[in-house]
Design goal:
2 strands, two-stranded antiparallel sheet
């Protein structure tokens, strides 16, 4: 009975066609879910009403939002956070969902998410620079709380040399330019896709789209290069500071010589010459060894009372009495060994008797 060899596949377990089919269906499912969620949020924002009950406005009243109470809460939170900059919140998510539905991938998702957050903040700041209309019921600006946080510091600095109108105009243009740059990079647009969108408006649209794409790309590259240069300059300054400190700090040999010198010198020796060892070839090296002689210790000095104090008191201090010898000292003194002049005389040799002979 003939046996055929097993079918070899790329993945050795799942055929490549089946793996591609599962990946495409999963991508379509995720993209469809993101698109549906974005559409629901857009409907909630479109039917937002400041008088609807929410987390910040408790009222016993039926919400007018198309999605009911959940839609009213979501819309109120987003409007208070970013205001009219909700367009920057929804645009990248729509582009990502369409890319997943077309079996594409979002390159570097963490980087795109970071650009998305930056685009939201700068767009909210740009909208906050616009004056609030009378119909605006929120206490924050048109860019919400985030827009006010982003706008207040630069506008306050620009108000010092300029008037309020020019400061808001300059800050608004800067924030709008940064917001467009970051949102475009968060959407992960490719050059071919921009050309396809530009063809809707004819040749002029294609040329305009190419110019916009080029300016945005160069802007991002310029900002990234500037940040890298600043980081490199900071690292070089840190390295130079470390080298300067290492040059100024004493070396190991200098520290060891100073420590040994402090051990050798006494309290009044002063600076001693450094010991060296002379070789036959003329080389001279320091000897790093502690000498066996112990350092001198200062002699004890007796403190005598000054004569001025004795004269002022009118009394003379009594003289010390001689110390009397004890009985044991008198018995062991052996005065016969001392001459009259006080010199010592050795005893005669016959004083010591011979040792007794040991018996066998």
């Amino acid at each position: 009975m003939a046996k055929s060899a097993p079918l070899e596949t790329d993945d050795s377990a799942i055929p490549a066609a089946l793996s591609r089919f599962i990946t495409n269906r999963f991508s379509e499912l995720v993209g469809l879910g993101m698109l549906a969620l974005t559409a629901a949020v857009a409907v909630a924002l479109a039917t937002w009403n400041a008088g609807d009950p929410s987390l910040s406005y408790a009222i016993d009243k039926a919400p007018k939002n198309a999605l009911g109470y959940p839609g009213a809460v979501i819309a109120d939170l987003m409007m208070q956070a970013v205001g009219l900059a909700v367009v920057a919140v929804l645009a990248p998510v729509i582009v990502w969902s369409l890319r997943l539905l077309s079996h594409g991938v979002v390159e570097r998702p963490l980087r795109r998410t970071f650009f998305w957050f930056l685009g939201i903040a700068f767009t909210a700041g740009a909208v906050s620079c616009l004056p609030n209309p009378e119909a605006w019921v929120l206490r924050t600006g048109l860019g919400g709380a985030i827009g006010d946080i982003v706008t207040i510091p630069p506008v306050a600095l620009l108000d010092l040399p300029l008037n309020s109108f020019l400061s808001h105009l300059i800050a608004g243009l800067f924030f709008a330019w940064c917001g467009v740059v970051f949102i475009f990079h968060a959407c992960n647009f490719r050059e071919g896709e921009l050309h396809a969108m530009g063809r809707i408006f004819g040749e002029a649209g294609v040329e305009t789209g190419a110019r916009i794409w080029g300016s945005l790309s160069h802007s991002v590259l310029f900002i990234a290069g500037r940040v890298q240069r600043m980081r490199a300059e900071k690292r070089s300054r840190v390295v130079r500071a470390d080298l300067r400190q290492s040059d100024e700090a004493p070396s190991f040999m200098e520290k060891s010589r100073e420590m040994i010198g402090s051990l050798v010198r006494g309290p009044e020796d002063g600076d001693l010459p450094e010991p060296h060892y002379e070789y036959q070839d003329g080389r001279s090296e320091p000897v790093l060894s502690v000498p066996t002689t112990a350092p001198r210790v200062a002699e004890k000095q007796t403190i005598e009372p000054p004569m001025a104090e004795q004269a002022s008191s009118g009394r003379v201090a009594p003289t010390a009495k001689p110390i009397k010898a004890g009985s044991r000292a008198k018995q062991e003194a052996q005065p016969s060994l001392f001459k009259g002049n006080g010199s010592y005389e050795h005893p005669p040799l016959s004083l010591l008797s011979e040792a007794p002979v040991a018996s066998a």
